[in-house]
């Protein structure tokens, strides 16, 4: 059973990630459609998933949540916070392939973006997307994020160098979608 509800959305519930969630997260993150989209080409074993939990999920510098639909874990969404000169955050997310095209990623990303602006005082929120990930680019653009730049051939995935696209939205530009 996933952890307690943190934010309710129109289609998903964002819950805390608990230790008992690690086996399902490990299974999902080793799916080629997930690891390719997040740029991780190495397999993740149980110990590594636990290290992610301890080093990232339990870190005060980020908010990492389980995306749940109808009581089932379907992915994760996170906001890494940077409180230096300009309060900002970097949004990251993935949804398990069998749950794609149902609006779960959009709802989760919108909920956490709204949280970043309204509850954490972020001035800007950004995201990185690989050039081949048209779905993620469309998701961000549908939420009002703008492409701000491109790092040419900045990562190596599936035997090829890939560009990384940078997206961002400012608090003054953000309009939360209905239901958020």
From TrEMBL:
The keyword Acyltransferase applies. It comes from the Archaea. The keyword Kinase does not apply. Residues 12-168 form the N-acetyltransferase domain. Keywords: Acyltransferase, Transferase. GO terms for molecular function: acyltransferase activity, transferring groups other than amino-acyl groups. Pfam families: Acetyltransf_3. PROSITE patterns: GNAT (PS51186). SUPFAM superfamilies: Acyl-CoA N-acyltransferases (Nat) (SSF55729). Belongs to the acetyltransferase family. RimJ subfamily. This is GNAT family N-acetyltransferase. The lineage of its organism: Archaea, Methanobacteriati, Methanobacteriota, Stenosarchaea group, Halobacteria.
